[in-house]
Structures
1.
Amino acid sequence: MLLDLVKKRRSIRKFTDEDISDKEIHEIIEVALHAPTAKNQNPVRYIVVKDRDRIQELSKYKKIGSKFLSGAKIAIAVVTDTDISPVTNHQDASIAATYILLKVAEMNLGATWGNVTDAVNEEGRPSQEVLKEFFKLDDKFNVECVIGIGHPAEEKSEKVPFDYDENVFEDLDVVK
Ligand SMILES: Cc1cc2nc3c(=O)[nH]c(=O)nc-3n(C[C@H](O)[C@H](O)[C@H](O)COP(=O)(O)O)c2cc1C
């Protein structure tokens, strides 16, 4: 059931040493490749990082909130070609990234989304710029997020949903 899966999915930032196979990586990305994209244009690209040293380096792409990557077994950067989808690239990438998080949870692996927008590294350099250099990306690309994935070394309780009545409105109600 999808509801069971969304309850199970939590952000996992601590990982064991256990490897993730190429077959597992393929299974994860295969799901993302089914994600909807505006006009079915698919501007989304996936960059898989497996090398330990590269992952260590990647964990410094921003000052706050990317350290968890250092323990991850793989990282997947979700990138878009903004020439293909100048307007909807963020939405397209976000849906694909969400598919990745859900598939990871289904496989009893753990993951966390690393945000890039408006982030800077220790030296104050924009993380977008840092990542474009790291991945040797042409300027037309946008790195939407960097997802760290591994076998969980922390346990989290089931996801508690936001309150229905506080967040759902009937048409013509005043939304608060
Ligand atoms: C758009 C987005 C950006 C996020 N950026 C980061 C991040 O940069 N670093 C991080 O550790 N977690 C990040 N997270 C994870 C959130 O902190 C996490 O989803 C939230 O606290 C709810 O916890 P849960 O995922 O366990 O339900 C991000 C999540 C989303 C959806």
2.
Amino acid sequence: MKDTPIDSSSKDSGGDGSNGPSNRDDDILVRVGLLPPGHQPLHLAQREDNEKTSVVVRYVDDVDEFRQLSELRRKGWESTDGDKAFQAQRQRADNLAQDVSKFNYDLMGKIANELHIVTGAFKMTPGGPKKKGRVLDLCAAPGGFLNTAMRLNSGCDAMGFSLHPKEGGYSNLLSPFRKRCMKFLDVTMLAADMGVAEDEIPIDHPDADKFLPRQIEQGDYYDLVLCDGNVLRTQDRSSGAGKPSGASSDDNDSSKNTNKNYRDLYENYRLKYVQLALGLEHLQPGGTMVVLLHKVEMWNTLCTIRRFARFSDRVHLHKPRVSHTTRSSFYMVAQGVNSAHPDAVAAVAKWKAV
Ligand SMILES: C[S@@+](CC[C@H](N)C(=O)[O-])C[C@H]1O[C@@H](n2cnc3c(N)ncnc32)[C@H](O)[C@@H]1O
């Protein structure tokens, strides 16, 4: 690792000193702009991710492009203009959740088109000349991706889930003819699909009454699976106050977090893993998955990409030019995914167990 001075503002990060090496790891991530100065580690999973990400950062610390990017990100954290721009972006996103604009729907369509031009991902090639293909979108509203898939694969089967607008989700803007394929539900509550039987849910679980019965039949396969969900700040997750009784004590070892809503602490992981697990489980062998990811140098993100590379013919990473330009987000397009490969089956089991 380079002996580069650590940003003095980062010395606050890490809290009470009981976190051992993760304090130093967080300092490195603050220096390269992957964490904001003064960041407080939330929970064990995030601390472990930070610790391993710092190994990646040390590895690429000598690369000119990475150093330039780090410098830009660090300036971004310090700039009040940047704060204002992101604040305005958050406000726009929150307003969209209440009143989804056609603008966002069109934007998602443009992103899908761009992804398709670069990778050909949205045109399905199902087995057999008469088959039209099947598409599953796990976080579909307002519907730009699903509309693109249906437009490029005339007559295909389509199914989409999305958070209900009453729970803070986006509206379904698909044309009246296509609208019916989208169902509003919270995918993180798909307990039966994730392999948890009703009688396995502890009765004192804060969300016991919200878990859902099976929505995708076993052995039901899709040629194209879209995983574009991101956690919405407008979503009401309040009933999940406290810690679920099934959680291990390690999950929540930071005493600061005992009164926090468990869903606020873990929602990113819950949403990511439910999409990956159900998406890959129900992908036709040889099919395509389009997955929204964040921060390519984060350990967790790299592990996801590496995992797909083991059982896919091609894995393409694409940052759209029409959007996401000032964010860390990008898309992974995995094609020729052998979902029956033992590593794929093991990945689904692992994600379901998280
Ligand atoms: C960026 S938008 C997806 C846009 C979509 N790909 C399109 O083409 O229009 C993210 C979506 O994730 C959904 N979402 C977030 N949390 C969810 C959850 N727990 N269950 C289902 N959908 C969720 C949001 O409601 C929103 O529709």
3.
Amino acid sequence: MLLSFLEMLDMHVHLIGHNNPQEATRDTIREYLEEASRRGLKEIGFADHDYFWDQMNFPMIREVAEEYPNLAVRIGLEAEYRPYEEERIKHLIEQFPFDYVIGSVHEFDGWIFDIQEEEHMHHKKDADEFYGRYFEVVTLAAKSGLFTTIGHLDLIKLFGVRPKKDILTLADQALTTIAERGLILEVNTNGRYKPVAEFYPERRLIEEIMRRGIEFTLGSDAHCAKVVGRDLEEVSQLLRQIGVHSVVGFSKLEKIRYKLV
Ligand SMILES: [Zn+2]
Ligand SMILES: [Zn+2]
């Protein structure tokens, strides 16, 4: 098969789901790793939300991972970035030797913007204003020095409301900081299953990111085993078409490059 030489990874996987945040069992972990193996992934990274910290069981992931010698199983964290909580995040990161840490903005100025209940507010508010503010907070996340990766760069579009200003202008400062700091951006396929119905980030941003020499990783944002690796072959192919030659995984905060050609 044409794509079989593409090396694949999924670095944004949640074991602990939003609706049923019980502790993951060995069997749950096996289901994820089975799906990753079935899809031919070389590397999978669990990055649960920091607010489920008490339910996380890293030794159990390590233990089950030993049953899958052909799959690199990484442990990361998706940290909720709020500018006034850098100390809290720093403290969490110090508790475990993470392979990578994703900094994500799902909330700013007290507005949790990515939940269904807030969709109407996206239509009511000034899109240029809230996109601008969102990217300011993303810039602060990139400046914080806490993260290896910035999650779903243009998540603010999830309900399909677009700014009048050019997205490249709105994201400019964030991209400059991300490039300066050597941070990685993910192509996160979950956006396709939201009202906006496209990957994070959109294609123009993907092309701009490439032009600026920022490297990519891949993530499904799976919250259940069957979503692991979803659409990532397509993304790998898209990246290769626009001239990206590798994607990045992580081990103990060090970048590992996987060739796309
Ligand atoms: Zn997220
Ligand atoms: Zn996530």
